Amino acid sequence: MAPFKSEDINNFVSLDYNLEVPIEQLWWLSFVDNNLPKGTQFLGVVIVNAIDFLGAVSKAHHLNINPGGEIVGVPIPMKMKIDKSYINCLLSRQECERDLKEFEIPSSALYKYQS
After folding, report:
1. Do 24 and 58 touch, CB atoms closer than 8 A?
2. Strands (DSSP E) found in 1-115
3. Which of 16, 22, 24, 88 could bridge across to 49 with cysteines, CB 3.0–4.6 Å?
4. How far apart are CA 67 and CA 46, in angstroms?
């Protein structure tokens, strides 16, 4: 093979790859059990870092903070600041209502999973 010469650069084809590197973001996972009596169906909220919804569910399970039941999740907007003490733990209804009440989940962004 002949050595590469600078004038040969025009013979190369430019390939434009659109490779997006997935990034982790915070996910809000809400757990309910519709088989329980009304008023007790809410099992809690988990906030975890993950690439996607199933990754968030898997991480909650791996961290042993998945209380079971049906899961609804949504990515948390990056502009929203969440206190680090709320990440990677199971949050009660009281904690959510007291400290995270400004977080509204748009129904169009919901992901659903039943464990």
Report:
1. no
2. 25-32, 42-50, 70-75, 90-91, 111-114
3. 24
4. 9
pLDDT tens digits along 61-93: 999 999 999 999 999 888 888 889 999 999 998
Could you read off the pLDDT of 7-21 as tens digits, one per residue?
555 555 555 556 677
Give 32: exposed, middle or buried? Use CB within 10 Å, 0-12, 13-18, 19+: middle
pLDDT of residue 65: 97
Is the overall model pTM greater than 0.85, yes or no?
no
Question: How many whole angstroms separate alpha carbon 48 and alpha carbon 60?
Answer: 7
Rounded to 10 degrees, what is the CA torsion of 73, 63, 101, 54? -10
The beta strands (E) that lie in 33-99 are given as 42-50, 70-75, 90-91
